[in-house]
Amino acid sequence: MSPDWLGEPFAFKNNKLSLTRKVHKRLLAEAQEAFPYEYSALLIGRGAAITDHIPMTSPKKDMHTFSWDGAAFLRALAIIREANLQWLGVLHTHPHTPPIPSQSDRNGWHYRSLSYWIVSLASSEPEWRAYQWNEGGFDLRSYTITEEA
Ligand SMILES: [Zn+2]
Hints:
This protein has one domain (18-146): Cytidine Deaminase, domain 2 (3-Layer(aba) Sandwich). The chain is built from three helices and eight strands. It has helices at residues 21-34, 70-82, 103-108, and strands at residues 18-20, 40-46, 49-56, 86-94, 115-120, 127-134, 137-141, 144-146. It has an eight-stranded mixed β-sheet. The termini are far apart. Bound molecules: zinc ion. The site of zinc ion has 5 residues, from strand 4. Keywords: Hydrolase, Metal-binding, Metalloprotease, Protease, Zinc.
């Protein structure tokens, strides 16, 4: 059995993956602020509803890959557990390329129950995609944006 803080946002038949408008807006603002570098964040909430996020700083500024400092990642997980929330996914940007998982994205992702978001800032309109890892590849998933509860 998975620990309670590790969410399963795709496990709910009648409850689609969702993101609050407020979090959506803040993620985009922070992503654009980080441009031309990659931005990444942990997405947190309960069940299938993402209601908050934790920005993750990268140990090295990189335009093409994202990586986390191990201690910062453990701190973020502690925050999630203390808040009695669940880790529901990660988001990172592709500042210069479409929102398609790269080879290093494929190699670096091991949490198949979580959602994997990519926001491309390569064209004038930001492009959002949510994926789920499934046996060797990423499947595109749909989601809804919800107003604040
Ligand atoms: Zn990527």
